[in-house]
Write a structure and sequence with these properties.
Blueprint lengths: L1 E3 L1 H11 L6 H12 L3 E2 L2 H8 L5 H11 L1 H7 L7 H12 L5 H7 L2 H9 L6 E3 L15 H8 L2 E3 L1 H7 L11
Parallel strand pairs: 1-2, 1-3, 3-4
Helix pairs in contact: 1-3, 1-4, 2-5, 6-8, 6-9, 8-9
Amino acid sequence: MYLLDANVLMTANNTYYPIHVVPEFWAWLAHQCATGHVKMPIEIFEEVKDGSTDTDRDQLYAWVHDTAHRRAIVLDEDVDLRLVQRVISEGYANDLTDNEVEQLGRDPFLIAYALASPHDRCVVTTEASKPRKQRQNRRIPDVCNSLGVRWIDTFSLVRELRFSTGWQRQR
């Protein structure tokens, strides 16, 4: 199962797969979610569903608020808080201040869901590895690497699950 970071949907819509330009991607994604290949933890989904006044974001806001999409995309399980704590202490630092923990946002939840079944789950994020970053500034890929959790970017997800628009060049 692939677990999506919020930035996957936001970046896809704002950059390379806008909903109004590549609706095939969003139909494919909804299908992958409905079949259980792709999911998003509720804590991460909440980041996306907040929306904004930007037109492109409004389309994403509408997409995630569609009842069928929400039902398909949200992972139906509760996080193991012990795993969240493990992600924070082993992945970031075991002595973070309250302010530093707050700066982590919801990333530890995403990684904890993957850590619950590391052989069957993979984190998908647009974040790039930056191994020199420390403490609350560590990136998802580096924390995943520290904990033995597989991670990939959006384009790897597209390749692994074989997204295609089906378009063929006319000669």
